[in-house]
Structure formats: structure tokens, C-alpha cells
Write a structure and sequence with these properties.
- The chain is of the alpha/beta class.
- Helices cover 29% and strands 27% of the residues.
- Bound molecules: shikimate-3-phosphate.
- The site of shikimate-3-phosphate has 10 residues, from helix 5.
Length: 445
């Protein structure tokens, strides 16, 4: 795909439903009491969330979809439909890790597989707790395909997360639904997105998060008591817009002087808004309005404007992002690297080794693409730093099959001089199929 520089972005858009929330809403609706129908609106249009629906259907769950509205009939907590074929999770780590939790507590064996990228990603992080609970999970040295031999009921555990991962937390909580007693997850490496907890509560489960002492400091501890009976909420479950998709538009508008862009209905869950704090502290003009509560989450309207003066950090420490903040904006780090190339003083990202085990090695991918554009980049095992106020020149860019790398490169191309050529642009469909048409609709050249 050839991409020309842009002059500015103007207009108003609504990004599609949140990917993380959509996966969870579908899975939890499928676990609701037999016959209970859930209606999910603004369901993510991503290929990833379509994979979750396909897997649920293959497990015998009645799923109907029309556009972004999905209706799911609950199959109760104990399932009997052993899938004949391996369940194909495509590119989606969330599908695989969350379904593994659900399947661990079922009285049959099933196999989870996915594309080459997903089959290369670490799965020991879920195998370990699921085996502690009594399931057996065989793998190819900690990678998919995973064969999950379920056990009903499972044994409840108290598990301290060795990595700050919402997927692992959610995997254990979903398994905990079929354990007898109290399942606990200690977020020992810091808080991660809490959509699973919110949706389980919306469906009537008793899920609590408390700050407790863990090895001398306070950590969030999520606990779930069984027996649980999940029932669909009385009203539709309307899924908030995806802030991780919005992030590419926020950054592009902040980077192009004269831009004035409004994003409506964006999810503002506090475990996801680190990107807004980071943008603001790097000097971007982002204003939040029209806050509302919707289906257990908060949404709002974001207005972002780009200014001639460019981006200057609001405080001296704003040029470094690390520590427990990383989990809150983990998916936004590729686009933050692009933004960093234009910030006074540049940007350093540390403590983000998890980026190396995403859909691709996102540190390596961003280092290569930013260098191709002429940015000054230093690579670390756990992050990277980019020099600021760089003059980027159009180049050959590569998504490495990763949706967020593709979108970060597209934004970088908009702010560069001359044309860029992006290989693997179609990867955007994994999370945001409308990305290029939506971007085009607000771009002025
Ligand atoms: C997600 C959690 C994060 C994130 C991913 C979606 C989720 O992954 O990067 O895109 O929906 O729970 P980890 O749990 O591996 O940190």
C-alpha cells in the first residue's frame, strides 16, 4: 500500500467496539444459564473477535450475528459438546488464553490452535495455573497447539501472576467459575485491564478486587466465589469504543498541526486510559467530554487538536515511560514510539519486554521501521528510545503481519515527507478492518 503525507485530520468518527471487551462479553454470555439470551451491540468488527464467536459456535453455543450486533444463548457453566476439530483462534491470543480457562473446567478434551504467529507465542503462563487447578494441558514446549484435558470441578487456587497479563488473569478467573470455592488472582506485577471482572459482575457473579499486602507491598487481589450462576443483563450490553483503535487517530491528529478531530463513544476504563495520560504529558491537546456509564464501563468523547508549536513534554520525567504504567498502555506503545519521534527530547520506553512476545516482536519491528524513516532509535532488551523532533522521510515499511505495527506505520507515513510503501497493510483487519477508510475520511491532503 502506498501512503502519501497528510496535511491535517478533521472531522468526527466513532471507532468500533472494544476488542478486549467483545471477546469477554461473548464468552461470558456463552456461560450464562442455559437458554438465557444476551444481546451484544457495537461488537468489535475485528477478525480476532470473529474467531472467538467461531470457536464458541464450534463448541455448540448458539451464536447469531448481524453486523455489529451479536446474540448468544447461554449454554450454562458445564458444557458437553466436545469439538470434533481443533478450535482455530486465528491470530488471537485473547481467544486462545481465555478459552483455555473455560475449557479447563469442562469434562472433555479439546485442542486450541491458531496461525503461525499465535503458535509461536508463550502459553506456559496459562498452562501453569490451569495445571495447578487440576487440568492437563499438553503443548509443543509451551506453544500452541494446546490440548486441554478438562476436569470438572477444578480445584480453586490463589495465584500470583508472574507477568502483568490480563489474559492470564482472565484465564484463571474463567477456570475459577468451574472450581469449587474461592479462586484468587494476585496482580503481583501491577494492575491490568479489568473487563473480565466488570462483565462477570454485570452477569451477576460475586467478583471482588481488594488491595492486599503481597511481599511487602500492596497489590490488587481479584477473587471469585463459587457456585456462580451467570444471567444475561436485562438490557443490551453495548460495547464501548476501542481506545486502542482510537489511539492511532489521537496520535495522528496530535502530530499534524491544524487538526481538529473528535472521537465519539470511546471506552475510558481507568485500566486502559494510560495512553491519554501519556499523550497529555507529552504535550498533546486531548480533551474528554460527555462521560457516561454504559454496560459496566465508562465512555466519553475525545477531542484532539494539533498545534503549530509541536509537542513538548509537560514535565521533565514525561519523556520516559516504564514501570507499572506499561500494562495500562501496552498496545499503544507502537504508536507512542511514532509520537516520540516528534516530541521535544524524544521518548524512552522501558520495562516493556512483553512487546517482544506480541503478534510480532514489536520492539524489533518499530526499531526497523522508524530507522527506515530516518529516526534515531536505540534498542534495549526491554524497550527502545527514539530521538525527538526528527525529520521523517517516506520509506518502505513492513507490518510483519502485526495489525498495530501496520497502523503505527501508516500514521508515521502521514507525518513523513514523500511517499511511503507499507507491506502487509491488510493485517489491520485483525483488530480494526475499517482503519484505512476511516482514516481517509478525516484526512486532508
Ligand atoms: C489483552 C491483554 C493484553 C493486550 C492484548 C489484549 C486482553 O495482553 O496486549 O492485546 O484482552 O486481555 P496480555 O494479557 O498478554 O498482556
Amino acid at each position: 500500500m502506498r501512503i502519501q503525507p497528510a496535511h491535517r485530520l478533521r472531522g468526527r468518527v466513532r471507532v468500533p467496539g472494544d476488542k478486549s471487551i467483545s471477546h469477554r462479553a461473548a464468552i461470558i454470555a456463552a456461560l450464562a444459564r442455559a437458554g438465557g439470551r444476551s444481546r451484544l451491540t457495537n461488537y468489535s468488527t475485528s477478525a480476532d473477535c470473529a474467531a472467538t464467536l467461531r470457536c464458541l459456535a464450534a463448541l455448540g453455543v448458539p451464536v447469531e450475528r448481524e453486523g455489529d450486533t451479536v446474540e448468544i444463548e447461554g449454554a450454562g457453566m458445564n458444557w458437553s459438546h466436545a469439538p470434533g476439530e481443533p478450535l482455530d483462534c486465528g491470530n488471537s491470543g485473547t481467544t486462545m488464553r481465555l478459552l483455555a480457562g473455560l475449557l479447563a473446567g469442562q469434562p472433555f478434551a479439546s485442542t486450541l490452535t491458531g496461525d503461525a504467529s499465535l503458535r509461536s507465542r508463550p502459553m506456559k503462563r496459562i498452562i501453569e495455573p490451569l495445571e495447578l487447578m487440576g487440568a492437563r494441558v499438553s503443548s509443543a514446549e509451551g506453544r500452541a497447539p494446546l490440548r486441554v484435558e478438562g476436569r470438572a470441578p477444578l480445584a480453586p487456587i490463589s495465584y500470583a501472576l508472574p507477568v502483568a497479563s490480563a489474559q492470564v488473569k482472565s484465564c484463571v478467573l474463567l477456570a475459577g467459575l468451574n472450581a469449587r470455592g474461592r479462586t484468587e488472582v494476585v496482580e503481583a506485577r501491577g494492575a491490568t485491564r479489568d473487563h473480565t471482572e466488570r462483565l462477570l459482575s454485570l452477569f451477576g457473579a460475586d467478583v471482588r478486587t481488594e488491595l492486599k499486602d503481597y511481599e511487602g507491598r500492596l497489590a490488587p487481589v481479584v477473587s471469585l466465589e463459587t457456585p456462580v450462576s451467570l444471567r444475561p443483563p436485562r438490557e443490551v450490553c453495548n460495547i464501548a469504543g476501542d481506545i486502542s483503535s482510537a489511539a492511532f487517530f489521537l496520535a495522528a491528529a496530535a502530530l499534524l498541526p491544524g487538526s481538529d478531530l473528535t472521537l465519539a463513544g470511546v471506552g475510558l476504563n481507568r485500566t486502559r486510559t494510560g495512553i491519554l495520560d501519556a499523550l497529555q504529558s507529552l504535550g498533546a491537546d486531548v480533551v474528554v467530554a460527555d462521560r457516561r456509564a454504559e454496560s459496566g464501563e465508562e465512555t466519553g468523547e475525545l477531542r484532539v487538536r494539533g498545534h503549530d508549536a509541536g509537542l513538548s513534554p509537560a514535565a521533565t520525567n514525561a519523556n520516559v515511560i516504564g514501570g507499572e504504567l506499561i500494562a495500562n498502555l501496552i498496545d499503544e506503545l507502537p504508536i507512542l514510539c511514532v509520537l516520540g519521534t516528534q516530541v521535544e527530547g524524544g521518548l524512552e520506553i522501558r520495562g516493556a519486554a512483553e512487546l517482544r512476545v506480541k503478534e510480532t516482536d514489536r520492539i524489533d519491528a518499530m526499531v526497523r521501521n522508524l530507522r527506515a524513516l530516518g529516526a534515531e532509535v536505540e534498542e534495549y532488551a526491554d524497550g527502545l528510545s527514539v530521538g525527538g523532533r526528527a525529520r521523517l522521510r517516506g520509506a518502505r515499511l513492513e507490518s510483519y503481519g502485526d495489525h498495530r505495527i501496520a497502523m503505527a506505520c501508516a500514521v508515521a507515513a502521514l507525518i513523513s515527507e514523500g511517499e511511503s510503501e507499507l507491506t502487509g497493510a491488510e493485517a489491520v483487519a485483525v483488530s480494526f478492518p475499517e482503519f484505512f477508510t476511516m482514516l481517509e475520511s478525516v484526512t486532508e491532503r
